[in-house]
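Input sequence (266 aa), recorded before submission:
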Amino acid sequence: MQINVVLADDHPALVAGVKYALEPVRTIKVTGTAQNSSEIIQLLETVACDVLVADYAMPNGAYGDGITLLSYLRRRYPDLKIIVFTMVDNPAIMREVARLGVHSYLNKTDDLDRLVSAIHAVYANAIYFPSESARQETNTRASASKPTERVALSKREIEVIRLYVSGMAIGEIAKKLNRSKQTISSQKTTAMKKLGIVRDAELFRYAWEMGIDGTPPSTSDDEAAAAHLAGGDDPDHAGSPDNPAGAGDTSTPGNTGSPHKSGSGL
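Predicted structure, token format:
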């Protein structure tokens, strides 16, 4: 299954660049591009669109831009997933956009891998606001509402989650990491059980909140993430020739399907 995406920005060169960057992603299909709100509405009436990636400021359209356009889109197309892709990094605007029910808010300075993650996340009904200011605000609210919890995720489980939320299917992750599909599915299942997560949408949200949102980290970043998430030694230890998957890979394998489906998660 492919995710049908419409790109909208009043800078044609940027649209062309984003479209080019998305072409290798087999789960994403760009079905149209627009330069203003009038063209967006025309496309939404004529082409398949699961996710709209749109700039916040796009003048000259009949339906306005910014909050005016987003409010209209949410009323007219309530099932449409919307990602705001913009240079505007204003916490007040982010809050208003989130209040409208927009599913994601990304800064154009972010790596495009993050946009790929966002497209898969919102398609799975997740809310994806990974900008630094939004992340800090979310973490502040979370810290105020409950004490910090330490969850013993292993480095292997973190690695699988990172690749999964980047848009890779179970089979692709298995091939990349030279493990079996059963092992990868088991590690994903185990991680979700440890986190108390049932649906993929919750997994996407957890990933960006913890900073494991699909962008390949440096070694130090990976170790830092593991240290933050793990309460002790790596439970999925290196294993042995007889158990290359590690001792932690004992859960029942789950769904090996495409990463952008919501539901039971596995």
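Checked by second reader. The first strand starts at residue 3 and ends at 8.
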